[in-house]
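[INFO] parsing input record for Photolyase
[DEBUG] input buffer:
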Amino acid sequence: MPKSNAPYAKAKNTSDYNVPDVPLASKSTRIPEATENIKSEHNRTGVGPELQGGIPRYHYPKLSTKEDEIVMRKYYPAEMSNERVEMYKSGQLPKPFDQLEQALSSTSTARSEIPVRNAVVHWFRGDLRVSDNTALHMAYEKTKSKGVSLISLFLVSPEDYEAHIKSPARVDFILRTLEVLREDLDNLNIPLWVEVVEDRKNMGKKVMQLMEKWNASHIFGNMEYEVDELRRDARIVNMALQKNIDFTVVHDSVIAPPGALLTKGTGKPFMVFTPWFKAWVTYLHENPNYLEVFPPPTPNPKETRIYYRDLFDCPIPPCPEGKRLNPKEVEYVRSTWPPGEKEALARLQKFLNEKVMAYKDQRDFPSGNGTSVLSVHFAAGTLSSRTAVNMARELLGNGTLNTGNKGIACWISEVGWREFYRNILVDFPWVCMTKPFKVQYSNIPWQYNDAHFEAWCTGRTGYPIVDAAMRQLASMKYMHNRTRMIVASFLAKDLCLDWRKGERFFMEHLIDGDFASNNGGWGWSSSSGCDPQPYFKIFNPLLQSEKFDPEGDYIRKWVPELKHVKGKAIHAPFDRLDRKEWAKIEALGYPKPIVKHVEAKGRAMEMYKKGLGREKP
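[DEBUG] output buffer:
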């Protein structure tokens, strides 16, 4: 099991209470206390925290059916059957990754014969950086060989942001990153054209229109491994060829390409992290070229500013409706999470200089500063896995990825978890379609208790460690990885709620929301994913609190009602305070525990056994 950042690709934390360092160019950022939690004006379901006695409250519409809580029927059909999953397994249904690979392979010869015209385009997606960018480098090499201009493109798709549950904070971070990226590219005489495509089905059509307008012959993009994106790119490859345009899609967000690592003997995809990671390390030791980083492109010809002058004046659009932070959130989120490639590299270097050596020992304590908090940059693509692993490997000094200082080797393995979960998307695509990795877990009779779910969302469960974590999420749009595991286990195994509701809620609020890592983490915690915690192993939130927040500093930070509680009572005030002291806490609005863990554990065991058909006759 991944202990720190793995399930959620949380790569770091750089200051007290899991709050990242202020921008390295400024030290004026102020971190608000939990009492300053603010209202999220919009998001996909209308959920947003509202101040009520200093505690975030959430409002969300009553959903008409249980299915509507899981599947966004505006964009997708009903949840697929287990039988259809078996068709993917048997090969009766083609996997989207294979469809894209087939499209690229079958058109390879024809695309190679397309002559270079006036320009070559790089299509930015989840790779918002200039350095170590595979597709950007390939586009640059193509222009360099012919002396033509390089144009960069980014398409804003409000429908995709809704369908793929990108949080307002994440969308805001992406658009702010584009501002920085535009400046970086402008210094290289490379224009960045940003356009809003209102209908997601018209994405390919819009790309073709722009290519023809610019008289561009080749367009490059880095591969995205979610189902919708793979299918979109497969269609555009063929669409482009019909217009005598070469659309090339390449691997970039993973170091070892999917399909390169298979189990010995059976030649099947890995489903367990530890043997996969060993194979990954061996593969990269034997093929060090995969760790080579690409330099940024050199400047465009001077004529580019004349010929494509209008492209240099392209504005970055505002956040789409439904994805906007309110003014107070804007101020806090933007000061807490500065964007851009330079910021990402500076944070990485600071972490490696000051904290990575102790990472293995310090990563699990949410009140400390033992992690790197780079997950937002990995998610936006302002930092590549190759760069991160290379910089960490240099500290090891022996050219390996898994020996030497335990802190460094451990952190590299956490980056590996992020890659592992992307491989899962490729080989087991139904996890992108609201199905669990372990399909039999579709039969678990989850409860759909609105009151319990609201208590979990708002940090009012009566379990301080859970409540602190959920309030951190409401305020920071981020949560420490250890507490992500705690709250996920609590939702699935103490409250017996469908884990997919929690998975969706995280994506609606996290600034570092990454589908593969988020899905993998929730699958681990609910025991329905690959390489999961067994269903009969259930986190005890009290023991987790005492072990990983022993002094209660994290709880006091985010649960102000408990800030004056002393000693071990901070972990379970209802049980450990006398009646008089508890009455004071209750008067501040803090609730009693909504379930008793011992009883909840028994219910969860029976629920899992029933769903998996393991009840005794």
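[INFO] The first strand starts at residue 49 and ends at 52.
[INFO] shutting down worker
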